[in-house]
Amino acid sequence: MRALIFVIAILLLIICGYSICESTRSKIAAEKNVLTWYQPAVGNLRMKVENLCTVLATHQSSAYVQQAFCESRLAYKKIEVFAEYFSPYTVQLINGRADDTTTGNNKQAFQALEHLLYPSLQTADTQAAYIEARRLVAAVNSLSQVESRPLPTDAQLFDAMRLELVRIMAMSLSGFDSPQAGQSLKETAAALDGLERVWNLYADRVNIYNPALVQYTNDLMTAAHRRLELGQTETFDRQSFITEYINHLSVNLKLSREALSIPYDKEQYILDPAASSVFARNAVHPLYISSDAQMDSAGSHDPLYNISGQQFRASYIYTLLQQNGALNTVAGRTR
């Protein structure tokens, strides 16, 4: 009997040791492999934007230019999860709120381009559009300069995924940052695809502790993509999509992070990293709750989300994300 107990104990120790070893190896791989994915994805974005410059320079048809523009935006959305978190100031030169183009302030390249290209590109605007496209190329080139930076941490990558879910809700899903192109569902799918690429770096590690959680998360991703693929922009129920997919994915990311014992830092952020979703109680720091949360600034592309008793406009959430990104950058420099 003692021999049997001894053998069982040894086997348990071997299994435990193997799990720890695999978890540690996966941890190192996740932090490195995210760049293995990100850098080629930035290269793809650069290629799409260069193509946009080419079709403008060669005076292609308005429809062809719009297609090149949409392809560039989809390529950007796929890296948004990483770029917004780790290069927020560069991203400010690439993508922002669409109504900036009506005020004449802070015209980000994509929004300035869309303003010129839709509903159709006028001959007189071709040169201005080309200049904006070249500005976009310069900003994209800056995104690829990550070799000299420290590797991203697990905590940062989980926080980036959590914030991307908020960004999907506030910007991609509503068309808030690209209202005229009418590609909001495709852009949502592209942003979700980028988030999923980061999640997949952790799925095996989480599977050691909670395989049901991994399966549920993967099922949610698949179902969300299917819903977007079958949906029509004009009739798509954004609020139910948030309730059924975005919020559940946010909870699952929180549970996955905690299963891996990845700590939350003690900094005070506008959006609480430990909140289950942006609609959870106290998810937004009390100092940043104001009447602006329900003020419409962009019409049909600034929907009012009413979930779990919380009401926020897309524009308000966008502002919170911008402010939170600035705080993340400052905190990252002092760590």
Radius of gyration: 22 Å
Report the portion of residues in β strands: under 5%
Total domain modules? 1
CATH 2nd-level architecture: Up-down Bundle
Can you describe what's shown?
The protein is mostly helical. The protein has one domain: A middle domain of Talin 1, CATH 1.20.1420. Helix content is 67%, strand content 2%. The chain has 11 helices and 2 strands; from the N terminus they run ααααααααααββα. Strands 1-2 form a two-stranded antiparallel ribbon. Strand 1 (304-307) and strand 2 form a beta hairpin. Helix 2 (62-86) packs parallel to helix 8 (184-209). It is globular. The N and C termini lie far apart (53 Å).
Write the layout of secondary structure elements.
Elements: H1 2-57, H2 62-86, H3 88-91, H4 100-103, H5 109-117, H6 126-143, H7 154-172, H8 184-209, H9 211-230, H10 238-259, E1 304-307, E2 310-313, H11 314-334
Antiparallel strand pairs: 1-2
Helix pairs in contact: 1-2, 1-6, 1-8, 2-5, 2-7, 2-8, 5-6, 7-8, 7-10, 7-11, 8-9, 9-10
Brief rundown of the structure:
Helices cover 67% and strands 2% of the residues.
Primary descriptors:
single chain; A middle domain of Talin 1; mainly alpha
